[in-house]
């Protein structure tokens, strides 16, 4: 059974969806593109670990997430999303780098498309992927949010 809650954050409300104890969706609100069946019933029960870890992340106290994840996607998308979790906190990689890492050296655009379908924003850090020339490009939550997340990680990284 799917349930969801909404978690306040510095980048706006985050809609978090769980199914069977696993995180299947974390969307920047408003999630207008989400089907109500995809969200399930609203419940604040069972999301304590997500709320705590997101709070620690936004406070600059957490650099990795330890949450049970179950994203749904194609084999390629799953490979890309797995690779995103390997980008160290406070660092960035280009779309081309990620494409090579998943065995598709000419697949930068496909990586961009997979990034755009990332169902677990922030936790699966698609914001850490940038253009080959270092510019901020492509972020479903908008480039100001991407800049905020990257700046947050740079500031917090200096504290450790």
Q: Strand content of the residues, in percent?
A: 15-25%
H and E string: EEEHEHHEHHEH
Low-confidence stretches: none
Q: Over all CA atoms, what is the radius of gyration?
A: 15 Å
Shape: globular
Sequence of strands across the biggest β-sheet = 3-2-1-4
The rounded distance between the terminal residues' Cα atoms is 40 Å
CATH level-4 homologous superfamily of the largest domain: Winged helix-like DNA-binding domain superfamily/Winged helix DNA-binding domain
Level-2 CATH architecture of the largest domain = Orthogonal Bundle
CATH topology category name of the largest domain: Arc Repressor Mutant, subunit A
| Oligomer kind | single chain
Mean pLDDT across the residues is 90
Pfam families: DNA_binding_1, Methyltransf_1N
Keywords: Cytoplasm, DNA damage, DNA repair, Methyltransferase, Transferase
Family: Belongs to the MGMT family.
Main location: cytoplasm
Can you offer a commentary on this structure?
This protein is an alpha/beta fold. It contains six helices and six strands; from the N terminus they run βββαβααβααβα. The strands form two sheets. It has a four-stranded mixed β-sheet with strand order 3-2-1-4. Strands 5-6 form a two-stranded parallel sheet. Strand 2 and strand 3 (22-28) form a beta hairpin. The chain is globular and about 45 Å long. The mean pLDDT is 90. Residues 76-154 form the Methylated-DNA-[protein]-cysteine S-methyltransferase DNA binding domain. The active site is at 126 (nucleophile).
């Amino acid at each position: 059974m799917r349930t969801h809650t909404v978690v306040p954050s510095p980048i706006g409300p985050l809609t978090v969806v769980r199914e069977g104890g696993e995180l299947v969706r974390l969307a920047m609100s408003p999630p207008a593109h989400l089907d109500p069946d995809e969200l399930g019933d609203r419940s604040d029960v069972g999301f304590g670990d997500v709320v705590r870890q997101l709070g620690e992340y936004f406070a600059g106290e957490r650099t990795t997430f330890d949450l049970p994840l179950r994203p749904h996607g194609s084999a390629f998308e799953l490979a890309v999303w797995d690779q995103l979790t390997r980008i160290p906190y406070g660092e960035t990689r280009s779309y081309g780098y990620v494409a090579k890492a998943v065995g598709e050296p000419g697949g930068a655009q496909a990586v961009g498309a997979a990034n755009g379908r990332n169902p677990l924003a922030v936790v699966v850090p698609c914001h850490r992927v940038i253009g080959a020339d270092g510019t901020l490009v492509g972020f479903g939550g908008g480039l100001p949010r991407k800049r905020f997340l990257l700046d947050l990680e740079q500031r917090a990284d200096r504290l450790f």
